[in-house]
């Protein structure tokens, strides 16, 4: 092992000991690393003295790290190995520090050498041997082999994603720290023309006519219309989604699409290729491929961390449904088994000239994959949309976000920020995963300060489907309440909806979550509607969702109790981009 390699390994373990409960364990690992480099005879070293020196060095490094990332006095954190999420500077507040950089470099070495998985397996075995973690009974004791395998697979996937996103396993990737990104976003806003009528200034899109635009609440409404439109399709069905689940809804959709394909209707499907490889998501996709349906398993070989999270269904080039719903039972509510969760979600149906913009987006994504992967499928040609400037009626714009190309603020986030900045009276935001970063928090705080009523609904720790984001969500909810926003937390089943209404006139229905992953990792889309009639229907849906039987109103910031936990450090620091 080279001295540089050894140094990175030990440095990585310094941070690991801050994230794990045992400095001694890290010291023992460091000792083993130094002991391994014994190719030449060396003077005898008293192990006890070496261990003592290592512990002192570790504690000094831990102290330096804690003083950087902890708000207030870090000595209690070092003593208890536990901390409140409110007392950690997350990655958006404080960029990567040297201890984290060394750890990430070491993880990159392990990844490049093919030893990441085995190292995590070894670490898990050592953690399981401890009677306590974070001063509490060790939850890893008695973990089944299946859960251990899932834990390792999840950890490897997230670590590999972080390394790829940061360019540590792909030098061609440029990583932008959140502090720099927030500063850039704010500077762009400052230079933009004033007025809410300029909400699309950053969108790379325009408003177009629509003959009909309708909000679709939950699976009952969305899938009733989806199934009807697909059944009546005469020419084409184009589907772009994050996933098709291998459940009742997924298989029913596959059967319908296969039947339409056999009847001569052109059927094309785009799914996230990484998701479609996993059990529970691949079976239905394989069935459609085997039936002859043209399927693109979307990936970006040059940026392996990037995902495909957009959702749209286009029928005969005349009807489009887009928003938050994938093809699965939790979205459709079709499964009669009441033990299957019924998520709250929102789609939007559009008919008219503006459908062409959705067709163009689908074609752009499809054509790029067909060309890059040299697929046998034909590319799609879409005519230019007609520009529109009507005086009355709802108009629609379609926004696309490519995280590789949009590194100075996504078209979707910049449009939302522009709406918040220009709002005069109200801002309503409903989103599954709300994780604050400085630019968004500052715009909301400024809006409240100038008298705008800002209301935000997101998941609670009991409703969220992804436990890893529960603490960041609650932390953000606390921060929002602290700056004067009215905050509501979902009761019951998971909130998966993503919408916003500005001044009762501009509405957004999106696939985009207000968390770091949507900004930096996922390809996303949004439908922006200008029109009071549609805004009224979205506002009514929001009002229903924040009613007392569906959500808890937070009276003040400290009413949100956040449990102390050692896990908050890696979640808010190392894995922040993956939230």
Quick synopsis:
By secondary structure, the chain is of the alpha+beta class. It contains 19 helices and 19 strands.
Contiguous runs where pLDDT drops below 50 for at least 5 residues: 1-43
**Largest beta-sheet characterization:** 10 strands, mixed
Count every beta strand, where a strand is a DSSP E run of 2 or more residues.
Answer: 19
Distance between the termini: 34 Å
Chain-averaged pLDDT: 88
Please, what is the oligomeric state? single chain
Alpha-carbon Rg, integer: 25 Å
Structure annotation, total helices:
19
Bin the strand percentage.
Answer: 15-25%
Instruction: Tell me the overall shape.
Output: globular
- The class by helix and strand makeup works out as alpha+beta
The helical percent reads 40-55%
Describe the fold and architecture.
With 579 residues, the chain is α+β, with helices and mostly antiparallel strands. It has helices at 3-19, 23-36, 47-69, 75-80, 98-112, 116-128, 145-165, 178-191, 218-232, 248-262, 282-290, 329-332, 355-372, 411-422, 438-449, 470-482, 516-520, 532-545, 568-574, and strands spanning 132-133, 136-137, 208-209, 212-217, 236-241, 266-272, 294-298, 307-308, 312-315, 319-323, 346-351, 395-401, 426-431, 453-458, 486-490, 498-502, 506-510, 522-530, 551-554. The longest helix is centred in the N-terminal third of the chain and has 23 residues, at 47-69.
């Amino acid at each position: 092992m080279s001295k540089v390699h050894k140094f990175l390994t030990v440095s990585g373990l310094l941070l690991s000991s801050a994230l794990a409960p045992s400095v001694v364990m890290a010291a023992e690992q460091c000792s083993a690393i130094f002991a391994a480099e014994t190719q030449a005879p060396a003077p005898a070293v008293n192990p006890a003295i070496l261990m003592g020196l290592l512990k002192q060095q570790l504690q000094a490094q831990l102290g330096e790290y804690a003083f950087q990332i902890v708000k207030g006095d870090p000595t209690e954190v070092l003593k208890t190995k536990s901390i409140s999420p409110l007392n950690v500077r997350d990655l958006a507040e404080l960029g990567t520090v040297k201890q984290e950089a060394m750890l990430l470099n070491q993880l990159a070495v392990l990844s490049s050498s093919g030893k990441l998985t085995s190292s995590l397996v070894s670490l898990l075995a050592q953690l399981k041997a401890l009677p306590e973690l974070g001063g509490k009974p060790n939850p890893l004791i008695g973990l089944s082999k299946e859960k251990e395998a899932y834990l390792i697979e999840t950890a490897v996937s997230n670590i590999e994603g972080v390394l790829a996103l940061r360019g540590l396993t792909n030098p061609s990737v440029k990583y932008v720290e959140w502090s720099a990104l927030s500063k850039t976003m704010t500077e762009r806003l400052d230079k933009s023309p004033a007025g809410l009528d300029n909400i699309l200034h950053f969108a790379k899109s325009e408003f177009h006519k629509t003959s009909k635009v309708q909000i679709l609440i939950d699976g009952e409404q969305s899938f009733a219309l989806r199934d009807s439109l697909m059944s009546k399709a005469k020419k084409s069905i184009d589907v772009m989604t994050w996933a098709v689940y291998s459940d009742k809804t997924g298989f029913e959709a596959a059967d319908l699409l296969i039947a339409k394909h056999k009847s001569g209707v052109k059927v094309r499907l785009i799914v996230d290729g990484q998701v479609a490889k996993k059990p529970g998501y691949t079976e239905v996709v394989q069935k459609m491929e085997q039936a002859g349906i043209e399927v693109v398993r979307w990936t970006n070989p040059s940026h392996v961390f990037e995902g495909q999270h957009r959702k749209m269904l286009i029928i005969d080039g005349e009807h489009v449904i887009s928003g938050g719903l994938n093809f699965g039972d939790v979205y459709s509510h079709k499964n009669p088994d009441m033990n299957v969760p019924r998520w709250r979600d929102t789609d939007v149906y559009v008919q008219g000239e503006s459908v062409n913009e959705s067709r163009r987006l689908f074609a752009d994504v499809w054509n790029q994959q067909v060309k890059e992967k040299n697929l046998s499928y034909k590319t799609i040609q879409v005519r230019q949309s007609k520009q529109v400037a009507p005086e009355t009626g709802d108009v629609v714009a379609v926004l696309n976000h490519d995280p590789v190309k949009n590194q100075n603020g996504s078209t979707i986030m910049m449009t939302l920020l522009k709406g918040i900045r220009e709002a005069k009276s109200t801002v309503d935001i409903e989103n599954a995963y709300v994780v604050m970063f400085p630019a968004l928090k500052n715009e909301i705080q400024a809006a409240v300060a100038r008298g705008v009523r800002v209301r935000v609904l997101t998941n609670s720790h009991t409703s969220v489907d992804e436990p890893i984001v529960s603490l960041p969500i609650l932390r953000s909810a606390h921060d929002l309440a602290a700056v004067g926003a009215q905050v509501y937390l979902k009761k019951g089943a998971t909130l998966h909806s993503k919408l916003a209404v500005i001044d009762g006139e501009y509405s957004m229905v999106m696939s985009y979550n207000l968390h770091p992953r949507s900004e930096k990792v996922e390809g996303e889309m949004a439908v922006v509607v200008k029109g009071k009639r549609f805004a009224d229907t979205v506002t009514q849906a929001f009002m229903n969702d924040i009613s007392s039987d569906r959500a808890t109103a937070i009276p003040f910031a400290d009413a949100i109790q956040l449990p102390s936990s050692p896990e908050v450090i890696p979640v808010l620091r190392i894995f922040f981009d993956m939230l």
